[in-house]
Write a structure and sequence with these properties.
One of its GO terms (molecular function) is alcohol-forming very long-chain fatty acyl-CoA reductase activity. Pfam families: NAD_binding_4. Residues 7-231 form the Thioester reductase (TE) domain. One of its GO terms (biological process) is long-chain fatty-acyl-CoA metabolic process. The protein is 38% helix and 16% strand. The chain is of the alpha/beta class. It has 2 domains: 3-179 and 221-247, Rossmann fold (3-Layer(aba) Sandwich), CATH 3.40.50; 183-220 and 252-308 and 327-348, no CATH class. The strands form 5 sheets. The protein has a 7-stranded parallel β-sheet with strand order 3-2-1-4-5-7-12, sandwiched between helices. A two-stranded parallel sheet has the order 6-15. The termini are far apart.
Length: 353
């Protein structure tokens, strides 16, 4: 019988991953390591689920907040660990990112190494551990002398290094691209990342719409259902042991085309002129502008980084399971429709400072 421990619950991806894993492993027992601040919310999420228990903990503590009794029991029981807990905010201050993303992962690693029956450790990284690198980024590459656009990227990079350095641990590292809503329903938890395009377009809908610069770089987005399904498959694939996978779009669109498709779906018209991304970034340096548009200025940088993420390793393994990444043009209508239906939902807006 599989005993699965997961961090990051009741976050959106962890919640969806829990349901997907329960479908695959009907008799598995799940332990969810949940921060005290999320305990009530987590319990609400699992009230109709069997074989799922919430344990209060904190990944920034060396003991993870577990009692000695819990640690002894878990060492004997846990077969799979899925580590999703992290600070994902592009504007996160360095000390917070370091404590949660790096120290937290170090503590999870120590716990993983203590398990007597571990079958798989799945660590959620990000494709953007590539930092400011340009050109083709391979799944086998990590420490390439890169610098970073923000503390989120840098601390996820540091965390991935210490996972890769684990000896005799059957890990699988997941590097997602920028994640958007469900390809079929459009559902998402937060309007961040690419959704900032929709927020800006909403604000300027009555004026002639500009492109954000040339937009000739590739902009890599993936729907969360592909990410979840791929993670479940890789967590059980022998070929995935001690491997790293880019869960990115193997055929991404240029930023300009992605922007145009969103504009056409949201406003029913195409952009007709071009504004410099530097000018947009300068405007977003002002707090009142960020709050007006509901956008972090750090997001603009991803529209001008000439990077291509090689996903050949992931593609080779996932095709055996019948899994392929949907093309953005085939689901853009679904994510824009969901945005239009929920654009006023305060719970889906990100906090802008």
């Amino acid at each position: 019988m599989k005993h699965i421990l997961m961090t990051g619950f009741p976050g959106f991806l962890a919640t969806r991953l829990l349901h997907a894993l329960k479908q695959k492993y009907e008799n598995a027992h799940f332990v969810l390591l949940v921060h005290p601040s999320q305990f009530e919310h987590a319990n609400d999420r699992i009230k109709d689920l069997d074989n799922v228990e919430v344990k209060i903990g904190d990944i920034t503590e060396e003991t993870l907040g577990f009692s000695e009794g819990d640690r002894v029991l878990l060492r004997e029981k846990v077969t799979h660990v899925f580590h999703l807990a992290a600070i994902y905010d592009l504007a996160v201050p360095q000390p917070i990112a370091e404590k949660v993303n790096v120290e937290g992962t170090k503590n999870i690693n120590q716990f993983v190494q203590s398990l007597h029956h571990l079958e798989k450790y799945v660590y959620f990284s990000t494709a953007y551990v590539s930092g400011d690198r340009t050109g083709l980024i391979r799944e086998t590459e990590l420490q390439m002398g890169q610098k970073f656009k923000n503390h989120y990227e840098e601390t996820k990079y540091k965390a991935e290094i210490i996972v890769q350095e684990l000896e005799d641990v059957p890990f699988t590292i997941i590097r997602p691209g920028i994640t958007v809503g469900n390809s079929e329903t459009g559902e998402t938890s937060k309007f961040d990342g690419p959704y900032f395009i929709m927020r800006i377009l909403d604000r300027i809908r009555l004026m002639p719409i500009p492109y954000l610069g040339k937009g000739d770089v590739l902009f890599n987005v993936v729907p969360y259902d592909y990410l979840i399904n791929a993670t479940v498959y890789l967590s059980d694939a022998e070929e995935a042991v001690r491997k790293t996978f880019h869960l990115t779009d193997p055929n991404p669109h240029q930023a300009r085309d992605l922007y145009r498709m969103i504009c056409e779906e949201l406003l029913g018209k195409k952009p007709t002129w071009t504004i410099s991304p530097r000018l947009v970034e300068l405007g977003l340096s002002l707090s009142f502008m960020r709050k007006f548009f509901g956008v972090e200025k750090e997001a603009v940088e991803y529209f001008r980084c000439p990077t291509q993420y090689d996903a050949s390793g992931a593609k080779k393994v996932l095709e055996k399971g019948g899994l392929t990444c949907p093309d953005f043009k085939d689901y853009v209508g679904n994510i824009v429709t969901y945005y239009k239906q929920h654009r006023l939902d305060q719970d889906k807006k990100i906090h802008i400072t």
